Amino acid sequence: MLRSSTLATPLTEGNMSHRIEKDSLGEISVPSDAYYGAQTQRAVDNFPISGIPFGRGFIYALGLIKRSTAEANMDMGLLDTERGAAIVQAANEVMGGTLDAHFPIDIFQTGSGTSTNMNTNEVISNRGIEIMGGTLGSKDPVHPNDHVNMGQSSNDVIPTAIHVAGALAIHNELLPALKHLHGALNEKSCEWDHIIKSGRTHLMDATPVRLGQEFGGYAAQVQHGIRRAELARDALLELALGGTATGTGINRPPDFPSKAIARIAQETGVAFLEANNHFEAQGARDGVVEASGQLKTIAASFMKIANDIRWLGSGPRTGFYEIALPSVQPGSSIMPGKVNPVLCEMLTMVSAQVMGNDVAINIGGQGGNFELNVYLPMMAHNLLQSVTILANGAQAFTDRCVSGIEANEEICTQSVERNLAICTSLAPAIGYDKAAAISKEAFKTNQTVREVAIDWNVLPADELDRLLDGRAMTEPS
Fold it and tell me: What are 240-280's pLDDT values in tens digits?
């Protein structure tokens, strides 16, 4: 169901008090207690699409950009101290989250994100006006365009916000979660290194492996995922700020971007820098496409790990049940006592969503028409959602599943002796064809490979024991 304009923000619910604001299109009614203004209200009215506004990370990035640009403009003597201080204070409040209710615009809006940049300018302008004792909506003494947006354009601010928000989310959320998951998987790998079990290829019995080796493989996938997340973060370090309307830098001083970006880097502790080429930085979104591709690869790893773990824990009577997953909630409304691998299922759905987000980001990345990409809000939302759900999914999967998994060592051990593929270790001694015949006979007569090999007297008993040693079969020979 589409949200109406009156439901776009909690500020308007049950509140009949409004003020009249003006923009280049004329007058429009705005809630009297809203810090946003005419352009935001028009966007709220125009885009009742998904009910999804920009999230905390993106709004934080916008506040940081506006604070940093105000400080840079004050430093260059272009913005007076009193106005600048009010803008900085308002921008700090945007960064802190206290003004989030004043950012109601849907992510499906103008492709440049101009509506959201003006939303930010209006909120900071009106809050600055309030700080300086003025009247909301008057644009005096703090003008949203002339002062808050000084030296900027939506066309460089929104791409900058995407990169800042994305890089920070990866750095502060995803990387710690991946390292947490890697530690838990690596711990299980070491703990279970002694447990021998059947390997499986094509979902069929294969030569034995150690349970610790399997989990070591998962740990290695996540270790690669950490590197990929770092590459994703680094793909977002160049910032478009300073390109203004088309990449030329019109209406901003030469030193403006370097001064503002240095403040962004100092505040975040992330090595942001000015884009080497502002036309690439605004006309294309290749960095976002690259970052999303790395996230998609991490999602593919998660899908494999989660699926393997739920297969290994399947049962408990009619599945593999080589590991026991923690029981975190009842699994059925009709079957008493049933417990399902819900954390694994969660992680596979997260992975699917990230892959879907990547498809949309790839489509968006092609949408750079000459000097501007016009899929920016969607790309921003998808990138940030992918980072957040990967991070939260990894954290929950680690804490509520991986850390509590227990090995069913007896079941693992029994599967090795019944495994027909252990005939592979006999092949170098008796030949492939003879070993294959033993495997077929064992299956046909419901015996083990060892039992048939003894009956056929293919090797001395001690040599047979040596070749069929489970541990030896999990290492090069």
Answer: 999 999 999 999 999 999 999 999 999 999 999 999 999 99
Question: 217 and 365 share a domain?
Answer: yes
Nearest to 346 by CA among 283, 402, 303, 285: 303
Whether residue 130 is found in the same domain as residue 183 = no
Q: How many CA atoms lie within 13 A of 428 on its CB side?
A: 9
The verdict on residue 242 lying in a domain is no
Residue 203 lies in a domain: yes
In a domain, 270, yes or no: no
Do 197 and 168 share a structural domain? yes
**C-alpha–C-alpha distance, residues 48 and 8, integer Å:** 7
CA distances, 21 to each of 27, 110, 122, 135, 392 (Å): 6, 21, 11, 12, 41
Concatenated DSSP letters of 268-302: H-S--EE-S-HHHHHH--HHHHHHHHHHHHHHHHH
Taking only the tens place, the pLDDT of each residue in 149-178 is: 999 999 999 999 999 999 999 999 999 999
Position 16 scores a pLDDT of 63
Which CATH number does the domain housing residue 436 bear? 1.10.40.30
Nearest to 162, CA basis, from 52, 33, 5, 272 = 272
Catalytic residue set: 202, 332
Strands (E), 56-176: none
Residue with more model confidence, 398 or 3: 398
Residue type, 178: L
| Residue whose token pair is 């370090």 | 237
Model pTM score: 0.95
Domain boundary among 92, 123, 150: 150
